[in-house]
Amino acid sequence: MASSMLYGGQHLTLTPKGLGFNGSDLHGKNLLKMNLVGRNCNFRSKTLVVPKCSVSVPRPASQPRFIQHKKEAFWFYRFLSIVYDHVINPGHWTEDMRDDALEPADLNSRDSIVVDVGGGTGFTTLGIVKHVDAKNVTILDQSPHQLAKAKEKEPLKECKIIEGDAEDLPFKTDYADRYVSAGSIEYWPDPQRGIKEAYRVLKMGGKACLIGPVYPTFWLSRFFADMWMLFPKEEEYMEWFEKAGFKDVEIKRIGPKWYRGVRRHGLIMGCSVTGVKPTSGDSPLQLGPKVEDIETPVNPFVFLLRFLLGASAGVYYVLVPVYMWIKDQIVPKGQPI
Ligand SMILES: C[S@@+](CC[C@H](N)C(=O)[O-])C[C@H]1O[C@@H](n2cnc3c(N)ncnc32)[C@H](O)[C@@H]1O
Questions:
Q1: Which of 71, 96, 129, 141 has the most ligand 1 atoms within 8 A of CB, as the residue to mutate?
Q2: Considering the chain, what is the average pLDDT of its residues?
Q3: Which residues does the UniProt record annotate as the domain MPBQ/MBSQ family SAM-binding methyltransferase profile (predicted)?
């Protein structure tokens, strides 16, 4: 597997076959080639042939992603926020992973203006305020329940904390030096729109750092991932960034230590994607109206069914890190797990 080789820090070329989304003919013909420079799992895009079609497509029937809707995500976090910091982060998003993922964001000035989009309980913001004065940092999230947890954290007391939608940010164009979003894209109905917004709100020369899941290759993990939410492929992130207008787009692979580089089950926090805004103003990408709005009424029965199916699928991903941790304890060090 390319992933495990990459952890060995080798040079390799990744040529994905069959990207598997509707309306696309991405089956190896529209080649996307990344020559991966594997130093410390960090690779640069050398060659990127962007497919003609958009990867920002509706969910195909085989990948219903029941929680990749704003209302479902809202209710998902209504409950999850109670235990989020204690149950989700230790399995999927540890402090050392966070620091590793934020490193390409170049948070090199305490005066930088930073927005943390989908900032939730402020776990990633705690990593940001190590490098940037809290008064310069805004945490935005659509969930007041998640934000309530962020408000309780002492190091975040001076941050601005606001409710809002990642796809329609309440910041003026050319506002921030850094855009950070960790573990939120998987809930955005239209990820390309969210990344276009990241571009818009950054100043010229500003940098976006988007941390998110990666798609599993193991069939059972893929099934539950597809039921739950969006697990993009690495090439999709690259395409979204390039289409939005970002330059110097790079991906750094991350993962919990005890996975020993295993990526076949997918990862909820699997990569940190960065890009630089080359000129001021809005993104060159034109998009139609927003796909979904949290205010739009939905059929309550359909909503409940989607919510229950999606949330149940998510339970699988609470068990995976436990399973990997047990394997890490049992299998002798240095051997693949
Ligand atoms: C997995 S949590 C990540 C929280 C935090 N960034 C962290 O690193 O722990 C995902 C967050 O994204 C938020 N979210 C989902 N969809 C959103 C949207 N469209 N706009 C803003 N926030 C959103 C959720 O409410 C949730 O707090």
A1: 141
A2: 84
A3: 65-274
